[in-house]
Amino acid sequence: MTGSRSTWITVLVPWFLALTLLPTAAELQALTLHPLRSAATDLQISGLLKGVPVGESRWIRWEDIRELPSQTIETEGEFLAGRQNVQIVLLENLTNQLPLAAGADTVLADCADGYTAVFTTDFRTRWKPYIVVAINGQGPTAWPLPGMDMNPGPYVVSVSDEVVSGVNKLMDVAHKQPWATTGLRFVHHADEFVASHTGEWQSLSESAVRGRELWVNSCHSCHTGPDGITGGSKSGRPFAVLKAHAQFNRAWFIDYVRNPQAKIPGALMTPHPHYSDSQLADLIAFILAEKPAS
């Protein structure tokens, strides 16, 4: 992730905001799925959708998303210096208005730079991630606004400690704040991560199982996994390359995860100095498919 993805906001709203964002059934209307994209602000929808052939996408309009139940919150320094008003729609409110097929329990937010964030049903229920649809009353067609150093559009998915208290304390919470989100994919979690649970990775040590959770919730956003397909493409580094470093160049691998730019100037990866020795040992155990002790 780039540094801009990890920018945090100070949200000046009451703690009960999460409750006010929950709509009644009468307030919600199904979103229209369009077969063709008509504007850069259309959000691509794909995956497990009723009535949509496998491999095909549909599109929903920004105007329709903005009509969903929303809340405007006041933030400090997220997109612009100083205070700004940000209109948000809960990701779950949007999800509930789509014709999802059975088993669609995980949302993948795909970004223009190859980044992919993972939002399980449990995460959406507990932490209330949301979609940013307007900043200071201006939708993504007006972004970047004067004063922005980059264009965060067409969509930003984010979480806030004031929407649900405690979210800021989650490890690698910035991986749940993808900018430049262009599409949402609806998948079955077990199917999406099957390669991490089968073959070499079917029977793992306790350390490797912990490492798998770290991989799915963090590393997966930029890196493809054991199947070479599932995961973000932003890093451009195949899983086999990571595995080789973890196996034969362990010290370098650990130093790189903690401070990539010190090893490769210009590296895109965000430093992870907060990873403890035990967490990095778990991650390496997963990458190497470490087996239980006999």
The CATH architecture of the largest domain can be given as Alpha-Beta Complex
Shape: globular
CATH class of the largest domain, anyone?
Alpha Beta
Mean pLDDT: 90
Return residue spans where pLDDT drops below 50 for at least 5 consecutive residues: 1-20, 24-28
Strand percent estimate: 15-25%
What multimeric state do the chains show? Answer: single chain
Q: What distance separates the N and C termini?
A: 38 Å
Series of H and E elements: EHEEHEEHEEHEEEHHHHHH
Strand order, main sheet: write it out: 1-4-5-8-9
Secondary structure: number of strands: 10
| Main beta-sheet strand count, sense and barrel state | 5 strands, antiparallel
CATH topology name of the largest domain:
Sulfite Oxidase, Chain A, domain 2
Rg calc = 19 Å
Report the structural category: alpha+beta
Total tally of structural domains: 2
Number of helices: 10
Estimate percent helicity. Answer: 10-25%
Would you give an account of this structure?
The chain is α+β, with helices and mostly antiparallel strands and 294 residues long. The chain has two domains: 3-188, Sulfite Oxidase, Chain A, domain 2 (Alpha-Beta Complex); 193-287, Orthogonal Bundle (Cytochrome Bc1 Complex, Chain D, domain 2). Helices cover 24% and strands 18% of the residues. The protein contains ten helices and ten strands. It has helices at residues 17-20, 62-66, 91-95, 121-127, 189-192, 206-217, 239-248, 250-258, 260-263, 277-287; strands at residues 10-11, 43-47, 57-60, 71-76, 83-90, 106-111, 116-120, 130-135, 156-158, 181-187. The strands form two sheets. The protein has a five-stranded antiparallel beta sheet with strand order 1-4-5-8-9. It has a five-stranded mixed beta sheet with strand order 3-2-10-6-7. Strand 6 (106-111) and strand 7 form a beta hairpin. It is globular and about 55 Å long.
